Amino acid sequence: MLRTHTNGELTTAHLDKTVRLSGWVASSRDHGGVTFVDLRDRWGMTQVVFSPAVSAQLHAKSQELRNEFCIGVTGTVKARPQGTTNSKIPTGQIEVQASELVIYSRAKTPPFEIGGDEHLSEEVRLKYRYLDLRRAPMQEAILFRNQVIFAMRRYLQSQNFVEVETPILTKSTPEGARDYLVPSRVNQGEFFALPQSPQIFKQILMVSGFDRYFQMAKCFRDEDLRADRQPEFSQLDLEMSFVTDEDIFAVFEALLKDVFKSCLNIDLVTPFPRFTYKDVMEKYGSDKPDLRFGLELRDVSSVFAATELKIFKETLASGGAIVALQVPQPSVTFSRKDFDDLGLFAKEQGLGGLAYLKVTDAGVDSPLAKFLKPEEIEALKKALPAASKPGDVVFFAADKKRKAHNALGQVRLKLGARLGLIPQGVYHWSWVKDFPLFNWNEDAKRWDSEHHPFTSPHPDDAAKMGVDNGNIRSLSYDLVLNGNELASGSIRIHDPEMQQKVFDIIGLAPEESKLRFGFMLKAFEFGPPPHGGAAIGIDRLLTILLGRESIRDVIAFPKTQKAVCPMTEAPSPVDFKQLRDLGIKIA
Amino acid sequence: MLRTHTNGELTTAHLDKTVRLSGWVASSRDHGGVTFVDLRDRWGMTQVVFSPAVSAQLHAKSQELRNEFCIGVTGTVKARPQGTTNSKIPTGQIEVQASELVIYSRAKTPPFEIGGDEHLSEEVRLKYRYLDLRRAPMQEAILFRNQVIFAMRRYLQSQNFVEVETPILTKSTPEGARDYLVPSRVNQGEFFALPQSPQIFKQILMVSGFDRYFQMAKCFRDEDLRADRQPEFSQLDLEMSFVTDEDIFAVFEALLKDVFKSCLNIDLVTPFPRFTYKDVMEKYGSDKPDLRFGLELRDVSSVFAATELKIFKETLASGGAIVALQVPQPSVTFSRKDFDDLGLFAKEQGLGGLAYLKVTDAGVDSPLAKFLKPEEIEALKKALPAASKPGDVVFFAADKKRKAHNALGQVRLKLGARLGLIPQGVYHWSWVKDFPLFNWNEDAKRWDSEHHPFTSPHPDDAAKMGVDNGNIRSLSYDLVLNGNELASGSIRIHDPEMQQKVFDIIGLAPEESKLRFGFMLKAFEFGPPPHGGAAIGIDRLLTILLGRESIRDVIAFPKTQKAVCPMTEAPSPVDFKQLRDLGIKIA
User: Fold this and answer.
1) Does B263 contact chain A (CB < 8 Å)?
2) Is A519's pLDDT higher than 70?
3) Pair A43, A146 in one domain
4) Can you tell me whether residue B206 is helix, strand or coil?
5) Which end of chain A, C or N, has fewer beta carbons within 10 A?
6) Cα separation of B461 and A272, whole Å?
7) Which ipTM was obtained for this model?
8) How far apart are CA A95 and CA A80, in angstroms?
């Protein structure tokens, strides 16, 4: 190799050895007629010294060096003079006295400093991604990504899971988002779709008896890239036969425990708590609750059964709910402006407003105070999650039940942040299960599957199928970390009759279900096993573990929110001839 | 879980234990009023006994069972009665006396027997792939594939290689084949291309300082599927910085040694022999020689410098060559028909014919004999690869040098097979290096890159650039196994000026090179390191290791040679609305 050692390797154990190093000039400075170069590679940084005392010619050549030149250096390892050592880096006790220099390639002045810490626009970073990836935070992210993904593979292999590659050029799967299409040249007028997930294939692998499957799967969704999405993303996709949901929870818990230990030296406590969808919606107003802090919600409708307060009274009369959010003795004294801002925020969440009261020594202080009877105040205090104390602030949402919970759930998150209640660097995991099987789609006037149509109903609710569709729980579950949905899965239907019932309820006509996934229904005619699984979003997991702003910071070559790659300029126009070969035209 | 043990697990160590098994009915038979079921899963087979003596009701239910029903059984482990044990399977000493039976799902009669060994048409196998994958040979192939790929990852991780995922939705890379295109909805009229390989991205990762990269990469080529190709295929893609070709050979050799040991318990002998392109073309008439047998070629033009034989004379006069292929004392006596068949085959390879002679005790026996002078025969015998003995047969090709070698190389393979010279179950590896940098494209009247335009010229030939393009060697290499090109790679150009020279020679105008991979040229302005790499075709490697007919037998869900999936029926028509959203029309 064009080196004997990396730039992170040499120590005083190598003194007086002749070595060859290769790497990039991180910095180069003249000091007392001697050139000092910090030579960088993936492994570290080594100081190289070009002295005219060794060779005037070599020293002269070293003065050509500029940042990011790629060079090779031969020299001798020497101890750094006293007072010039650097204890921050492993090579900080030594330097290499150069006797030879090869300039492999020169570099223009980069658009930003590789070792700098100035804020860089994402546009520039993505355009010059090859330089952005030289920066320490990106090196760290990509190396950590590799480490985590390999740790996952290693663990699952040790548990007899088999990684199977499912096709990228395939047929649309019914995940609800738009497909990326690939025109077929051989069968003109027909198209492949890139998979939104390997859902059907992994279920077919269970039919085939692979028993324990996983895949680091590339998935593709042609969505409008609101928030933090990518057209292509990675998920750890997993499926098992002959299991209950608890078996799947156990595998994911053991997997994450192993990965956190091996990659972060963090001991996760398992099992993670399990909550039902109903629980967390009522307590946290969210199906992905951030459990790093309290601030629970309570339905206090019964407290106000005989209220004089018009808005509460009307809400209850129309079948709505009064939901309270107790802030026990907040560390911050809320100003009038705080209440106004929160009220505005609540309106953005769809509420009419955000009523509140403060508990005082004397009773309560609130714009509502005059409408509240003393027995109501007493009943309220008893109904709240924590023993009520002077200083507590209580907020109220009055609306349709689900809306009140959802909106107050958002207020809860806002308050958690505002009050500094959210500890950083901690991991609060939970499983949320028993999601509804169906959701009423008001626009289309029909029932939709909450997850996907292969999700099994909860056996205790099977009798409600077609009778009370809105109250059927499913055997589905999400893995939630610090308020983020990290994984999602379910026990699947393996009974063709039950599958047909679900299709009937969501109004999927037999001819359409056959067209979309007839091959899966066909496969299920040949003894499908009971099975279930889940998938973890890898990009999001890494973003959280690394504390980054965006999933784009954990992907080597991401697309922007406009679904383009500023570096390659993909997508791009193509030759007319290519389109003609494919039998398509631009409309 | 819905089982306490797998079907490959129970032995006499479990006698009298109550167990729960799940799996598929591999066979079910009635014997003396008792039902015997072979219960199968990925892990093995267990015999389950339903006896009316235990429960008449259970026994009656067991009679409903048909092959491929998926069931769960609770029962007690018993020793099989003497004379009924099966030493071929690990569970062959026991059986499970059932006390409970759950039919998870029923199965129609499969279109073929899962445990059968009849020949199945590939069409039926691919249509019912979910059942085909239940068959032992496919279970073996997919599990072995997983094992090999994981072994590769594990080894490369241990050597500090970092796996980086490069984009699937990207821009065309210049690999020469047709791209699969993906219309962009957000940027209508523009297209992503699926990568033919991650070539440019891996070189950019070297520019970014990742130093040692690999990826199990999905690659896509929209080719007419002659031979054994797939629209999407897997390669182990690898790139290293600061290396020579020998460093890359060493990594691949150590990798393969590790994989063969851990997956096949075979000790490979490394280093593999290195040959130059010139060597193997001259000796074997192929750049991917099958070294499992001899039958070397020799250029014997000088022997015939003064020949009377018209065809040889004319060939030499026009600058061609006479190439000989010696078959030392073949085990088979060639009949007239053998010679005729070989002559016909040679003509199919583009030769005018295939001259031959037999060495006899007296001299030679050949249609050519009368044209050969005794001193020519003597000189020929000396020129042949092996000492000439009576019984030897020698074939001759007289044509342009490259054509004569190529065609006789094909004849060599044919003879190797015909004479049973090719041992099975052995692995003959070699590196073939120093391929030509350019090939003259007679149709287009221009120089083409033999590999891709980023391949470095051999430093000893750099002065020939633009002067003697046909005789420039490159720093490229192939890994050859038993006559198959398994891997291909090169040391890349890292000098922008040299890159420009190559583009000039292949006639790539600056505006076109900028359009196609301007971002890479731009990246190379910022200190690219010396680097190189290679890629192994995973599908082909597995096909060879498993001794299968086709790469389709080592891929879970392959496409046919018509680039369709008979199971999903992809590609398929799509909604008009989808095309409208994408801004494209069917022409």
Assistant:
1) no
2) yes
3) no
4) helix
5) C
6) 65
7) 0.95
8) 6
